Amino acid sequence: MKDFTYLKACICFLLFAGVFSGCKKEDSFLNVKPNESLAVPSTLSDLQGIIHNQAVLNENYPSLGEIACDDYYASTSLWDNQGTTARNAYIWAKTVYDAGSNVPDWSDSYNQVYYANIVLDYLHKVAYSPSQQQLYNQVKGSALFFRSIAFYNLVQTFALPYDPSTASSDLGIPLRLTSDINAKSVRATEKDCYQQILTDLQTALALLPNSATDITVPSKAATYGLLSRIDLALGDFSGSLANATSCLALNNTLQNFNQLNPNAFPVFPNYSPEELFHSSLEGNGLVGFNAQVDSTVYKSFIDPNDLRLAILFYNNGGQIEFNSQFDKHSNVTSAIGTNEIYLNKAECEARAGDIKNAMADLNALLVTRWVTGTFKPYTATTSTDALTQILSERRKELLLSGIRWTDLRRLNKDSRFAITLKRNINNTIYTLPPNDPRYAFPIPDNEIELTGEPQNNR
Amino acid sequence: MKKLTIYLVRAMLCPKIKKQFTLALPALCVLLIHGNSLLAQQSPQFYIKGSVFSGEDSGILPKATIKNNTDGKQAITNSAGEFQLLTADTSGTFTVSYIGFKPLTLIYNRSHPGPFRITLMPDENTLREVTVSTGYQTLPQERADGSFAQVDNKLLNRRVSTDILSRLEGVVPDLLFNRNTINGSAGQVDISIRGQNTLFANSQPLIVVDGFPYDGDLNNINPNDIESITVLKDASAASIWGVRSGNGVIVLTTKKGKQNQPLAIELNANVTIGNKPNLYYSKNYISSPDFIGLEQSLFNRGFYDSALQTGYAAVSPAVQLMAEQRAGSISATDLSNQLNLLGQNDIRKDESEYLYRHSVNQQYNLNLRGGGDKSDYFLSLGDDQDNSFYEGNQTGRITINSRLNFYPVKNLQISVGANYVQSTSVSNNPLTEYGGLSVGSNGLYPYAQLVNANGTPAAIPKDYALSYTDTVGHGKLLDWNYRPLDELHNADNTTKSIENRIDLGVNYKFLKDFHAELKYQYEHSDLTQLNNYNSNTYYARNLINEYTQINTDGTLSYPIPVGGILQQAENGLTSQDVRGQLNFDHIWNNKHQVTAIIGSEVSSTIASINDYTVYGYDKGTGSSVANIDDSDSFGLLPKGSGMIPNTLGFGKTTDNFLSYYSNAAYTYLGRYVFSLSGRIDKSNLFGVSTNQKAVPLYSAGAGWEMSKEDFYHLDWLPYLKLRATYGYTGNINKSATAVTTISQLSNNYDSGDSYDQIDNPGNPELRWEKDRMINLGLDYAFKNQVLSGSVEYYIKKGIDLFGNSPLAPSTGQTTFFGNTADTKGNGLDIVINSRNINSKNFQWTTNFMISHVVDIVTKYDVTATSANYIAFSNSSSILPLTGKSLFGLYSYAWAGLTHNTGDPQGYLNGKVSTDYAGIIANTSINDMVYNGSSRPTTFGSFKNTFAYKQLSLSLNIIYKLNYYFRKTSYSSQGLPYSGNQDFYSRWQKPGDETTTNVPSLQYPPYTTDRDLFYKYSSVLIDNGDHIRLQDINLSYDFDRSVYKGLPFKHLQVYGYINNVGILWRANHDGLDPDLSSNTTAAAYPLPRTFSLGIKATL
User: Fold this and answer.
1) Portion 769-828 of B in contact with A at CB < 8 A
2) Which of B309, B589, B727, B1076 is deepest in the core (most CB within 10 A)?
3) Does the pLDDT of residue B774 top 60, yes or no?
4) Which residue among A13, A100, A185 places its CB closest to the CB of B516?
5) What is the pLDDT of residues B532-577, one digit of tens each?
6) Interface test with A, best of B7, B14, B301, B750 (most A CBs within 10 A)
7) Touching check for A81 and chain B: CB below 8 Å?
8) Best residue in B689, B759, B811 to probe A by mutation, most A CBs within 10 Å?
9) What integer pLDDT is reported at residue B11 of this predicted model?
10) Do the beta carbons of residue B583 and residue B137 sit within 8 Å?
11) Chain B residues with CB inside 8 Å of A59's CB?
12) Residue in A closest to B919 by C-alpha
């Protein structure tokens, strides 16, 4: 009897040993997600979700240029209270950042590039049905748009102004075209940078819908607008004109300022209807509520019927501060807007000698800014006269929108419009002459240290 | 019949068994046949029978040796202490022996074969048989060739504490309590065994309770239920635990009953009273008048203007007064008088009086144990009530622990354990609740008062200026004042936890040499944290006020209903383990012994969290307001807009393991030991292909007890043993994934819809961390145990460690997490136990331990900037640098202060410089100063125990050497709030630079880099070496054998003082280097505590 007990014990033991070792369920047991919230991008809608990450893709556009430009000025006490980067950028110091620190203007833009690259890389891997082709196109077009605008912003901030004679040797920025973090970063030439941006945006044009339901998502109209902006920076005025025309053909909405309540904050409770694509600048202490409007520009608003005096500015006990430039999150809006596109178009027409259309486009915009019935259309006799007027109105209309830095960079190439910027801090005068190498900000230390990329010579 | 059975077993089973059995089983089957056939030939014969007990505690003694002195045959007692010895001689003597007990010789004859009831008395002069437990098996220390440290019950009880692990401090060599880390100083367990073997994976040792990994809260373990602890330190000891063993293993064995043991009742009760923390210890303080002086100076420079202009930003009362004077509402004389008045306050006095108290911890424990022939039992009840030194914070814990063993038939043991723990902790002190005392983003000004002159609780500005909160809303809003003492009484923050643990085990012995075990454990715990902010709490009033909408007609509406707010967080944990194990143990020819185990286990741990917030909550009725609009944005008072906070959160994590393991040891002549151990772990690593999920880990070892050799004749050194092991342990980090992962989030920034975030860039190369260790050991004992102990040397290597390396930001990521790093290390530990005096009435013993461990990073692919190394080097986290210690401390070289301005100076390109930005940017990794490790590399303890008759006194001294720490000093920008006593010794006039290293005060605009350079300069690095008298234990034992008529069999009265004080420190500033300089929580040394207790045995 006893021996049978042994036998049974042996059988039992080996049975349960077999349960553990031979178990077919082993795979499912070991494939359980260690954390329920983990997911792999596996569907088109996952990728669309990535494209919809507004906190990454529509925010924190570089603001170094805005800090360094002449839209505003800071009192010495406001300047005193800023961080190293803002203080140095304001006075165009040779070194700008705290040593070794991460520079969000750089890394946040490249995070946008990374998001776009993840989407572009995974688009090859996800399965989708023919009925989803339109969604596929929109996701791909959006990714190309976001990558391009990030590259463009980086080039405007960290590379010298475009000069066709030296563009094939001037250093641009690293063109990251893969999400593989092991790929090496190398600074491409400016020519290659713009080539990549323009090619990708052309591809995006073919993929994107005319307009998007949500203006944080790219559309064909926004892409034409961006192309028009980039062409201006490149000095390609005919290209800019063509793109501006295509853009306005899709959407030429302008906001009648008579319908706005200047005391509301934010002035646009959601977005301005002129925005074709919404984005906002990296937060920093200088370009904010306490910044004071450049007094020369402010004084150039001479007509009391110009509603922009009340909409664009806020009179804080005699100090003129910015007002409608802030979005509902109190960030500085850096949208692509129809107002900008009208101005692009007018400028290009003036440069081409088409005075009539140039002034018509300018007036079409300005009439919406005046008290109804009071606007007297602007006129010009020569194309230079038209251009001067248009650039002066451009300066007034696009204050604190992230565009001025590029305008300074490109207009300084033309001796008629070149200016030297001045700052006064503690009675020390700082200047930035036209075409100064300081128009390109230094590449962040951590990027240089880890990649060996060449630094900008300031 | 027997042979037939064996044949059948072989025939039936061998073809079916899996691969891992194919080698082991046939061999075992052969052994069976051989072993059994030996017994078959004896005749005439009869059995001498009996059982062996310990004279110490009446417990049974398994594995005692019974030797027939006539024919030399031997037997060993079984787990019930019983033996049978077959003999053919009609009469003779036999000797019963057991290590640590005096041998006993008895007479037998055929007419009196027993059963004998044999009681062995302990022998103080021989080595005690110490068994070590790996959690899978227990083995005598003699047969272990790995590195084990055993802490017995007596040593565990030397210390009085609510938790179990702190009792290991200073009694286990190689085991370091990291008190100077962020976790350690927050009171959490932060232990390293033999240094640190990982960079970024879990660094804490695996805790095993009764053979199963313990996943619950360590505070739920009642130390009174623990019989002994074994610490597994090297690969040979720990590798049986596989991929969770890389940081060492701490095996807790709970108390159990014993068969045939009369009922024993044990009562332990103690009370511990602690001092208030010494608030005057911290150097991070400047006096109230100086603080106000600095505020005045900054005020005059317009420093507070932007805050004052807002009209609502929180400013201190002094600044408020200065603003009032400037506005003309008070006179200059009034201002000066009021500031003088404020200057007389000292918040430390108020805090000490109202927010701190003497801590009182009470501990009661009752346990019963005993056993009959067919069963034994252990039952324990514990009650701990701890009142923290924070007024209003306390914890309570009730534990019920039981274990029953049944022996229904011979060779079968069924074991049932059940454990229930219920604990409640209350955290209502304003210092520890909801952000602590602060003014805006600053700390508290030193002249704050908690009580007004009339004795009512005083208000301090917290989020907004008092001038704002007092007037906004014109009395229509809820009271917006923050009064810390009111908060103390209104706060209702409790954490309740319930834990259940049940285990079942069956152990069956068969075929003489085998036993099979099947074990199952189920563990479930629920932890609920309830922060009930009733309508009187500042948290609720502040939030309701901020969201109050003042309508154009002057009426108010409340998006957050007026009432209480309840934040609830529920954490659940369910863990299940099943294990099957086959054990084999056979001795033949009195020369060869083979022990082996083979087994498999499956474990699954599921943790879940569930957080939510309820508004308009009323605790009395349990009612709340539904339909809170948490999707729209509201305009806030005083400024901005926001959505109603909702801590809604769910989460679930699963850890699955499937493991196979085996180990075997062969002992020859009782003096040569060879061991082999192997384990394969598979786990649910995310996205890793199946073949990478498993990792095989193995170890091998050998031991040689030289003193048993025939040629060994050193009488003065009767025990000498050499050991060597080699093997691998492992570690994992499940936060890393092989593929790119995203998570879906709701409430998109602009549009409010859902969107995806990329969490992890994905790492196809994901692997397990492996730690290789070679251990060489020597155990020794001099004659009469005058000196005994061990010396161990080890070399270790960390392979494929996870590294968080910086990436060029143009990749879109700033860091990458993968198996990028290697480390190496070595160490030495020496244990010397000395019996200095051993007379009948007086004994003096000393236990000395010294451990030395060095951990070096040998491979780290990416180098960070020198500024990163310098700023981030600390004892809590690692920024690895090849060739340097894991916890290296770095700094800027210091070149003194300038003569004319008292500016700090460093070196730029080899020259003395004050170009701080240049120094920071241009100090290369080779130029920065490497000060050394910020964790002790040499440490140990020195314990002396004096016993006079029944009186025993024990003092434990703990020392930590060879490490460095960064002192805090003042920075001009941090003033006045981040003040430091160094402010007083700053450079003030030329010539001061010869006597001080503290830079002069700078005025705005500040050079940030000047403060930064000084903060991280080598002049602020100090030596952490110190020697501390950790504790003193004094006890008196009453024993019925001495005190006739004592109602207890044994009664011990004990007193205990913990955190006695530092005896010597290398730094000259009176700093306690065990405090983390990185946290405010550790601003004060742990207060001294005094305990008084009794332990009675009925």
Assistant:
1) 806-814, 816
2) B727
3) yes
4) A13
5) 999 999 999 999 999 998 888 888 889 999 999 999 999 999 999 9
6) B750
7) yes
8) B811
9) 40
10) yes
11) 749
12) A99
> Secondary structure of chain A: what % helix, strand, coil (to 5)?
50, 10, 40
Residue numbers of B between 499 and 518 with CB closer than 8 Å to A? 508, 510-511, 516, 518
pLDDT, tens digit, for every residue of B507-523? 999 888 899 999 999 99
* Number of helices (H), then strands (E), in chain B: 18, 51
Q: For chain B, positions 651-690, list CB contacts with chain A under 8 A.
A: 651-656, 658, 660, 682-687, 690
Reduced to 3 states (helix: H, G, I; strand: E, B; else coil), residue A358 is helix
**Contact residues, chain B, for A107 at CB < 8 Å:** 809, 814
Tokens of B784: 């009469």
Interchain CB distance below 8 Å, A6 and B511: yes
Task: Decide if the complex's ipTM is over 0.90.
Answer: no
Whether the Cβ atoms of residue B985 and residue B1019 lie closer than 8 Å to each other: no
Which residue of chain B has the CA closest to A32? B684
Give the closest of B580, B741, B743 to A13, CB-based.
B580
Residue-level pLDDT at B155: 92
Interface residue B552 vs chain A (CB under 8 A)? no
User: CB distance A329–B749 less than 8 Å?
Assistant: yes
Which residue carries 């009453």 as its tokens? B1038
The answer to whether B344 touches B292, Cβ cutoff 8 Å, is: no
CB B898 within 8 A of CB B1005: no
User: Do A253 and A222 touch, CB atoms closer than 8 A?
Assistant: no
Strands A187-189 and A292-293, by their bridges, are unpaired
Whose tokens are 């003033």? That residue is B975
- Give the pLDDT confidence score for residue B1077 in this predicted structure: 65
pLDDT computed for residue B768 by the predictor: 85
d(CA B482, CA B484): 6
User: In the structure, what pLDDT confidence band is assigned to residue B15 with cuts at 50, 70 and 90?
Assistant: very low
Q: Which residues contact B812 (CB under 8 A, 6 or more apart)?
A: A110, A111, A112, A113, A114, A115, A117, A176, A179, A181
pLDDT at A165 over 90: yes
Q: Which of A17, A118, A446 sits opposite B758 (nearest CB)?
A: A118
**Averaged pLDDT, B964-969:** 91
A181 vs B510, B807, B1008: nearest CB = B807
Residues 235-274 in A contacting B (C-alpha not used; CB under 8 Å): none
pLDDT for A346 beyond 80? yes
Q: Mean pLDDT across the stretch B148-177?
A: 92
Residue in B602, B652, B866 nearest the CB of A20: B602
Beta bridge partners of B672: B668, B704
pTM: 0.77
Q: What is the mean pLDDT of residues B844-848?
A: 96
Instruction: With CA atoms as reference, report the closest residue to B736 among B700, B776, B764, B708.
Output: B764
pLDDT tens-place string over residues B29-61: 333 334 344 344 445 788 888 888 877 666 778
Residue A318 contacts B where some CB pair is shorter than 8 Å: no
Please indicate if any CB of chain B lies within 8 Å of the CB of A60: no
- pLDDT tens-digit readout, B718-748: 999 999 999 999 888 777 777 788 888 877 7
Q: Where are the alpha helices (DSSP H) in A41-186?
A: 44-51, 54-57, 64-68, 76-80, 84-90, 104-123, 133-158
H or E, element range at B466:
helix B466-471
Distance from CA of B383 to the nearest CA of A (A): 36
**Cα–Cα separations (whole angstroms), residue B1024 to B192, B848, B955, B1072:** 18, 21, 22, 8
**Residues contacting B283, CB < 8 A, separation 6+:** B968, B980, B981, B982, B1069, B1071
Is residue A178 pLDDT above 70, yes or no? Answer: yes
To the nearest whole Å, the CA of B3 is away from the closest chain A CA by 10
